[in-house]
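B., you asked whether I could sanity-check this one before it goes into the benchmark set. Here's the sequence:
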Amino acid sequence: MSGRAIVALTVAGSDSGGGAGIQADLKTFAALGVYGASVVTALTAQNTRGVQGVMAVPPEFVARQMESVFSDLEVRAVKIGMLANGDVIAAVAEELRRHAAAQVVLDPVMVATSGDRLIAEDAVARLREDLLPLADVLTPNLPEAAALLGERVAEDEAEMAAQARRLLALGPRAILLKGGHADGPESVDLLVDREGVHRLAAERVATRNTHGTGCTLSSALAAFMARGLSLHDAADGAKAYLTVALRAADEVGVGHGHGPVHHFHAWWGRESHG
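And here's what the prediction gave me:
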């Protein structure tokens, strides 16, 4: 019996250590039953300890990759991650418009878990002007939301909701503001759209292995949207998937720094790691 695969596309940077970026996105898509296509926007020399180097892919070749995918595959959702500079941002925006891309999840990746910067300072304005209006969902963490708005980092849920509404005014159709950088026993994300505020809460997981959490959440959201779930259900599913991946992260044992979350927790048994 034949069928058509559900396809999602990730447009992001490559992580040579495998825990974030394109690699995390493709693992997440696969774990959630979605066929993943990819457009590489940058190469990073990176591991669990940090980022040792970044090389942006020429914007014309980013555009060529996107044309190759959209001209052949039936893409149901697009996740956008690391875009290293303004020229790459402009190329991605143009291709999204040209192909009338639907269900665009924009993760405004600016800084790696290790603290290394992944986007040029002058590209933030380009990101805000060119890509935010094309996003169905924008998924910033607290520092990224503050940087996009030119404000201080939100310190409580009321401030988070207020910043999310200001981001909404910049063009995205919804904001999933991630509260993982906050303190407290709960990790609270807020999904804010023109209908109101949807609170997503989970017990905060005590682990140092958090590499790729933002990439994983946004790609899980895109995967569930590609599968036809409503925005609220997709956000709930993405939050649940990431929470379990974080709880299982210490079982993976990769690297000597901030290791990755466990994307395949549902399939790998403990005996596979020994």
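One thing to flag: The mean pLDDT is 92. Otherwise nothing jumped out at me.
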